[in-house]
Amino acid sequence: MSIMKYRFESFGGVLALENPPMLVHVDRDFMLGLGCAPSPLWEKPDTSLLSAPIEVHFSVTNACSRRCGHCYMDSGEPDAGEMRAEDFRRAIDLLAGMGVFHIALGGGEALERPDFFELASYVRDCGIVPNLTTNGLLLTEETAAKCRIFGQVNVSVDWSENIGTAGQEDDAFAKRAKGVDFLLEAGASVGLNCVVTRQNFDRIGGLLAFAGKKGLTDVEFLRFKPSGRGKLDYFERRLTPAQNREFYPMLRRISQECDVPAKIDCSFVPMFCWHRPDKTLMEQFSVYGCEAANVLLGVRSDGRFAGCSFLSGEESIFDLPRLWNGSEYLARLRKRVDLAPEPCRSCAYLDICKGGCRAVSAFVVGDDSAPDPECPFVDGEDENYKART
Amino acid sequence: MTGRILKIKTGYNPNSSSIGVDMIAFFTAGAAVTVLFNAIAAILTAAKAHKQAKPEEMKQLSELNHLDAQG
């Protein structure tokens, strides 16, 4: 049990524990009670805008031999101008200096980068917890042992695979499952990622059963997004309005049955809010809607950053300390709540949800500041749904 | 312990594309939140005590304070 580090914020501070892993936001009095001297930040108005991202999602390469048809990063070949190791280390120095707590390393397929574990070790040496998303196909006994450096490793499960259907798992899933076994044997904390689509929606139970049987840490379910090659067949793969409404109660039921924690990604928060969860609880347990350009930031392997991994940006990570409070691009992303149109404007959950997924709004509506068109409060399907159920 | 815990986020988010939202709190109802937050406050206080016993870690915190003051 130890505080790994903390940083001040205008409201007080954020403390990071590594064992148990936890981020805790506290007020100014709590910081004083811990023996901290008052921060200059406390002379400024209390605001939800953080002094730096809490976590950064960092693609270390765009190379991926799997080349999934729906890849949100359009991965396959390395990015032109992909960061060299020394550039990466300089970027990590900068993020450590800003007080970033966690870095989620990914790709492409991060393990296809030959110097990947050296980069990950550098993140750890800088006092930041590295985490990893991998397709799991390159995991061996040897690489899995090196993965103990991560706070957690999540193995992504492809929507197109036959997940969890006894006797029907395809070869790729079997390889990923083997990778999971290597990680577990190495003593790493292991979870799964699964992009939920119209096609695999009914097979979620199989994946949770698999995770429960293996004793995995959790399973994170991600909404399919129109980003990268995901744009190509987005309208065929996205969930139906009925599935968007059924998702949370189904996940809750199956997660309890399989005794494995389930997580949803930020873009599913509108679907969660439709079930009217307790707002105070949502705030206390850090249920974040779109926190692009505040809680998180996405960085491509060529060093360009964006509000999140599904958005595109042209500014360089090396300019982030100057741009965090000075970028018009970041400022525009943060204004969405203030400028929210109806029906978001009148929604009780706006300050948490923040209008849903911008990548979806940008692709479907043509305006990334428009209300998420697939939010059940927005999609106009409520009456139809009630009639059917 | 004075002051308040405003929010917590447990676990890690290895997902390199989006923020994970832990559903456990909503599965198990919110009645135990006060107890949980008190327990976390105790953990943090204990961690602080642990911190005081390790000068090298205090140096790290001081450096962070210094960074913050610069910012």
How would you describe this protein?
- The complex is a heterodimer of chains A (389) and B (71).
- In chain A, strand 4 (55-59), helix 2 and strand 5 form a beta-alpha-beta unit.
- Chain A has a 10-stranded mixed beta sheet with strand order 10-9-8-7-6-5-4-11-12-13, with helices on one face. Chain A has a 3-stranded antiparallel beta sheet with strand order 1-2-3.
- Chain A is of the alpha/beta class and 389 residues long.
- In chain A, helix 6 runs parallel beside helix 8.
- Helices cover 32% and strands 17% of the residues of chain A.
- Chain A is built from 15 helices and 13 strands.
- Chain B has 71 residues and is an alpha+beta fold.
- Chain B has helices at residues 24-27, 33-52, 55-70; strands at 5-10, 20-22.
- Helix content of chain B is 56%, strand content 13%.
- The radius of gyration of chain B is 16 Å and the shape is extended.
- Chain B has 3 helices and 2 strands; from the N terminus they run E-E-H-H-H.
Summarize the structure.
Chain A has helices at 28-33, 85-98, 116-125, 141-146, 171-186, 204-214, 234-237, 241-258, 269-273, 279-284, 320-323, 328-334, 350-353, 358-364, 382-388, and strands at residues 3-9, 12-18, 21-27, 55-59, 102-106, 129-134, 153-157, 190-196, 219-223, 262-265, 296-299, 304-306, 315-316. Chain A is α/β, with parallel strands linked by helices.
Count of helical regions of chain B: 3
For the sheet with most strands of chain A, the description reads: 10 strands, mixed
The ordered H/E elements of chain A are EEEHEHEHEHEHEHEHHEHHEEEHHHHH
Give me the strand/helix succession of chain B.
Answer: EEHHH
Note the gap between the termini of chain A.
49 Å
Helix percentage of chain A: 25-40%
Going by helix content, strand content and strand pairing, the class of chain B is alpha+beta
Q: Would you identify the regions of chain A where 5 or more consecutive residues have pLDDT less than 50? A: 163-169
Coarse shape of chain A:
globular
Number of E strands of chain B = 2
- Classify the beta-strand content of chain B into a percent band: 5-15%
Major sheet description of chain B: none
